[in-house]
Amino acid sequence: MKNRLLILTAVLVTANCTFARELSAPKSAEADTTKPGLVRIAGNATMDSPAFQLLTELSDEVGARVTGSPEARKAIEWSAAKMKSIGLENVHTEKWNLWKGWTRGPAEAVMLAPLHRPLAISAMGWTGSTPTGGVDADIAAANLFDLEEEAKNASKFRGKIVYVVAQGKPKQSFWTIFGNYASFLRQLHAAGAVAVIGGDFGFKPEGMHLTHTGILGFFVDEEIPVVSMAKEDEGQIERYLAEGKSVRLHVNIQNRFTSGPVESANVVGEVVGREHPEQVVVIGAHLDSWDLSEGTTDNGVGVSCVLAAADAIMKSGVRPRRTMRFVLWTGEEQGFGGSLAYMKQHASEIKDHVAAVVLDNGQGPVKEFQLGGRDDLIASFDPFSDSLENIRDIKVTAEMELESDTAPFILAGLPGINLAQDPAEYKFTHHSEADALEAVKPDVLTQDATIMALTAYWIADRPDRFASPWPAEKTARMLRETGQFEKINAFGLWTFGNLGQSPQ
Ligand SMILES: [Zn+2]
What spacing in Å lies between the alpha carbon of 273 and ligand 1's midpoint? Predict the structure, then answer.
């Protein structure tokens, strides 16, 4: 956290001591000559921002955009056209392939006994279907915290709808359980279970009568249909099961897979640097979304912030020392497909990357600059954060966002900077039917876009290079020491082997 007391002390001491002033010359926005540019950008970004207009267009004219779908292709064209009309340089798309495409069809559930009533469900992404017309089946519970035991007796789930519930105490870490979940679902399918109520991993979805869709593992598809069910409906089922009553449902879930890979693309535009054009600061967000609503908060907000940041920089007529590269990735929701493809396609330039600034935590105000494990950068970043205090008080930490497009940059040893937002309302809109424009406040959106523009420009325009990638050994050690190994391994993204292990 930035230390205002220390800064105050420095100001008091240097007020009547020239020698001390030279010694403690702050590496502030003023001292590093970025301030005139920042002031112009702040003016354009706050007084003439297209952010909410862009978000409205994306929500209402493009709408939901699942990677590989025709709607996602429209979103790619829309973004490239916006980048061109904003005036960015080198606007282009970079193609990559997702292993399989998926389309949501109807999902209905009706309780047949003990009561007769409709239930609220949504299929999880990249999961399968019941036979046409659906099936009637009894529910059998499976304990998330005992998946190994449950899998040994998988034959008891034959012909059943499996209700996954977290009971008792976990024997493994959540991330290890998460890593094993996809294979458990495959075991249920092999045993002849008909469907799984377990989209929320044995927990209950947030919100009143909301379901949340999503993927169940990185680049994983399941033949068995898996659904998220509203917590009120789950609660009633759980009470019946606890009383020993049998619960019978009718479920009809119809989804479609493509037979092979589907093409997608990231959208890229630049402001080429005036002194070190080869050095790159990435400003990014994911363009793809889920499909229960408009994909406004996840991550239309990030998309509109990236585009509005580009707009403010172009309108200000500033050209930073280094290249600012605006990137909209697809495939984030299936396991960072687009940003991982970006790292591969730009492998030879990663040594020249300085940082990535990413916004993907919903609709709330930015509260924290998370520097992605790079605690060595906090001291030089603090004065910049302090310079924003009339916009918002934002703390600076080395926290890591490993569940978004920041992760591939962090794994490459770079500061994958997450503009962490207040999550109070995002937990309801995230992947749900409530992910719509109604959840967004235009003033908060505009401030977030302003903060994104200023952050990226400040990094790109500093006289000295803000950061260089750490060697793999150092990154691996940092990730192990901060307890991230299990999570990254569960995502299938641990590529460091034994690196970073402390000597025995
Ligand atoms: Zn997202």
Answer: 29
